[in-house]
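Pilot study result, target chain (122 residues):
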Amino acid sequence: QLQLVESGGGLVQPGGSLRLSCAASGFTLDYYAIGWFRQAPGKEREGVSCTSNSDGSTYYADSVKGRFTISRDNAKNTVYLQMNSLKPEDTAVYYCAADTGSSCPDEGYDYWGQGTQVTVSS
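Predicted structure:
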């Protein structure tokens, strides 16, 4: 069975940091583009970040540039999202997704995790 499992979410104060993990089982993340998405209550899902498997390029939504960093640890078959300087508007369920293509697509990812809750509040 092919699965992605997110972890690392929780409650943090504004300005704090969290590190989300996306661990794969049943397939090797090396050959996939991996994206992070989030969905807040009453809002549409939005792309946050992505890392390509073709040249290692990374992409970030304007709202998180300079604050979030995506990275891979191929030995652990895991992708991370380091989130710094968190804001209340970052509150959402965060999902990771894998795509068999070499680049980061806008949609149509093949595999999705179950999500992890991130709450930023004082």
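One observation from the pilot: The radius of gyration is 13 Å. A full batch analysis is planned for the follow-on phase.
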